[in-house]
Amino acid sequence: MAQDLLKGKKGIIFGALNDMSIAWKVAEQAVAQGAEIVLTNAPIAMRMGTINELAAKCNNCPVIPADATSEEDLQKLFEGAMAHFGGKIDFVLHSIGMSPNVRKGRHYTDLNYKFLQTTLDVSAISLHKTLATAKKLDALNEWGSVVALTYIAAQRIFPDYGDMADAKSLLESITRSFGYHYGVDKKVRINTISQSPTITTAGSGVKGFDEFIAYSESMSPLGNADALSCADYCVSMFSDLTRFVTMQNLFHDGGFSNTGVSMEVISKFEKDD
Fold this sequence. Notes:
This protein is α/β, with parallel strands linked by helices. The chain is globular and about 70 Å long. It is built from 10 helices and 6 strands, in the order βαβαααβααβαβααβα.
């Protein structure tokens, strides 16, 4: 990748928990490309993870705790980031997702609806709150870029993904709707990246995850895209090279999304002579 793609740019990275997180890789790659960043995560996630180690690696950048479901926390985050940067923000990564129903093994047809509200609030509505807060504060520079991470279960059924599929569908809808309004008003672009199944702390909690990664690998012509490659794609979306891309759901999955079946998968069903 070309160097200094983000030189002079300033951004907020949500969701880095540990070095297995895609957000962790995005933070490292953004800084390597010349960006200044602020890291944030929910206070409970920060206690569970090692985000301060990442901050040290990223030029001792600030870590501002914020529950992304709290408008008050988000306002403090954006105000704190702008105070640190001495100006507005150029990019934001939303890498947040959590389902109590999935964690507790509740089947999709037998959801706990209070848990579902939490899933939707944390995994999708938090993006709307983040964007609304940024817009009210006029926190993003013109031609700024917001990227949220999603998954193809928003369009197709993956049985064990549960109510997270509904959350990702809502996340992608918010991206389109807010992308229109923010684009008209401030030229801010908003996109989702639909990533291959990736071994992260969150993903590993999904039932049958290891088997599905193997299946996806065998279905994708290029194989599964890893976390570092996803980080590189995010950097390109934050850069000026993609300034007219907005309101899109961009598949970063080695071709999985357009493959009906692969010869490798077919071969597993061949009968012995």
